[in-house]
Records
---
Amino acid sequence: MTTSKDKELIRKLALLNAINYNGKAQFQPVLGKLLTEKPDLKARVREIAPIVAEIVEAVNKLSLEEQESEVKAKWPEALVKERVETEKRLPPLPNVEKYKQVVTRFSPNPDCVLHLGSARAIILCYEYAKMYNGSFYLRFEDTDPKLKRPQLSFYDLIREDLEWLGCRWDAEFIQSDRLPIYYEHAEKLVAEGNAYVCTCKPSDFRKTVLATQACPCRDLPANEQLSRWRKLLDGTYREGEAVVRIKTDLDHPNPAVREWPALRIIDTERYPHPRVGSKYRVWPLYNFACGIDDHMIGITHIIRGKEHLTNQKRQEYMYRHFGWEYPEAIHYGRMKITGATLSKSKIVQGMRDGVFMGWDDPRLATFITLRKRGITPEAIRRLIIDVGPKPVDVVLSWENLYAYNRKIIDPTANRYFFVHNPKKIVVKNVSQTVTAKVPLHPDNQEKGFRQFQVEPENKEASLWISSHDMNIVKKGKTVRLMGLFNVQIENVAKGIVEAVYHSESHEEARKLGAQLIHWIPADTGIPCEVVMPDATIAKGIAEDGCRELKANAIVQFERFGFVRVESVDLKLKVYYAHR
Ligand SMILES: [Zn+2]
């Protein structure tokens, strides 16, 4: 039996699907969505399917306007959500129809943690794979144990970052596991005369290549090349004495493309690889390993920064030697975020010099720091999708990211009072105990209230206010203590503010144009430290209600900013997100 409630749900899903696809709903996605929302119907899919088909057909007979007005009338909130989702579509990828499925990859070197600068590559590759029901791969490019030395801890930290971003990968590859594959391909290139072992001094080689000449190694016979290749592997040559070069056009207009190096020797006795130690001494360089892998693991779409355009030119020579077709390559422009250090080398240098306290230093734009600060992965995702893969450079500010984050956390973050650098205010003429009820969220009273008891002693009430508000509490002025009452300031002396009770209602405050300030009763609250984005600590007292907060909660300290809770015990420790 299909209930009328089920039918109503099917109709809703069909209408939303239709609105998303220009008025035409499709049977399969509607059924899929239905079974996700009501998994108990799976057992009765034979009975349900014809009903879905019937409703989809009925919905498709309506015009788009009729569909929209029905949804607007019955489920207005659903329409808003679906709209937002469609707005965030990425532009289509080229030549998708050429491939059985779209396969993308994110390929970090595990020599550092990930940061906001990596977000674009990760999110675009992941989202495109998802958009086309394809696959998203993670590939660790860890073939430089000397200069860009990988570290074991970063493999896991990178995996954690991707999981936090919600970008689950379908398969994982580690290049240091794949050396035999690179050797096999290198040998083939050498044997077929498409690559050669060059023993020239780097300075000599540079001269010949700039003169568009072949070096003496280039045209040696195949048997000599192969014997050199074996000497490379067996240790006859030492670090710096030989490299394998890929043959290109000697007169390619860009000298950086000519005769590029594919493999070189690294003395792994001195520089052991963290995963495979000294097992290998011949290591592929970036373009070789990356180019072989992209083909071998079936990457169809490479989405990366335009600084890789030259790499494509280099790799295309190798692809032609092998008779392979180069994947589709999409190169996006640079993304700068004013005030954020997005250069990995600068971050690593700062860590080495002790400028930063750790990978979670609040001044860094690492994902570890961003999640400590309460920046949500969804905010990063929306920002990147809106920026998209366009080739022009974009300059963003922290405020851009904060705006996305605010939209996400503002509707749910509970509000609390945090008094930064507390100052005492003594209010006279408070004749009885006053209970202040302040909503946890101004737009959602269903969340409940926080309650404060203000108990006067000899008709005097003592409260904490923030020293930032000392420019508001001026002699003779009336201010409103949020949710409590209005007071008139009588005197400010020696850091203590003396005031007298004025009136209770908010109306009165509005009439008087009294400014609102936050407060907490003296002798209450929990000491609180806020780690600010410049790594300074803002100290103060947070209201008693904050004792109940759990780690990772994102709340708003009213008139101060959004924060994420790091820990609560005798003291509350939070990280500042933004206003
Ligand atoms: Zn040479």
Note: The chain has a mean pLDDT of 94.
---
Amino acid sequence: MPARPSPSRIPDSVSENDSSPPAIPRNADGGPGRFSPTAAGSLDGKVVLVDPGHNGGNAGAPSTINRLIWNGRESETCDTTGTETDSGYTEAQFNWNVARYLTADLRAEGATVVLTRTSNTGVGPCVTQRAAIGNETRANAGVSIHADGGPPSGRGFAILEPVADGINNAIVGPSAILGADLRSAFGTGAGEPASSYDGVDGIQPRKDLAGINLSTIPKVFIECANMRNAADAALVTSSAWQAKAAWAIASGITTFLKER
Ligand SMILES: [Zn+2]
């Protein structure tokens, strides 16, 4: 991808209602949306699923998000509230901001982007639906954006990869390649170390996540940082770093898709 544009227009910190990331047209119900390319580029003809984890309204809707679903191996709740920094900046907001930067970056490189939600004030969708949206649109690659609530002494990012369960068998191999491309791009582009407590060298296979258990497209999760760690909390609440993280993710996805 070309050099990242200067983030100088973006303030250093963001509030819960920050609107500095690129605007996304909000669907009537804040649900999924599909967005055409804004320019031609190396991702012409590609479709990318961008899944911002959780949702801003989840905490107020326990009866909806605590409903049990089948994740391909076992029961799991429809969704969760996600974590937050010690000062209360929510993971749902961080994920949403990174997703908006990432969507703009990918569209400018020629990709069509499918988002699993188009606001941060709704509830869900359930993790099963988040997987189904990527499958139904036959996206060429997918990424679920998250940040972790780990031990305060630990920091860094981790890529969560699928483990074969029958449904996802065909995408375990390609997802490992996507994960390796993302790990390389994120370590360099976001300047974030691999997690000191989750996975090995930034890679952690997971059997308990519907989003990758039920996926039939190459897909991984990225835990961008540890929101409970002071150094990482300073990053996740910075618009400049959110944009940087998104650009790094876009670069990793671009590397993966150019190989295919
Ligand atoms: Zn999360």
Note: The radius of gyration is 16 Å.
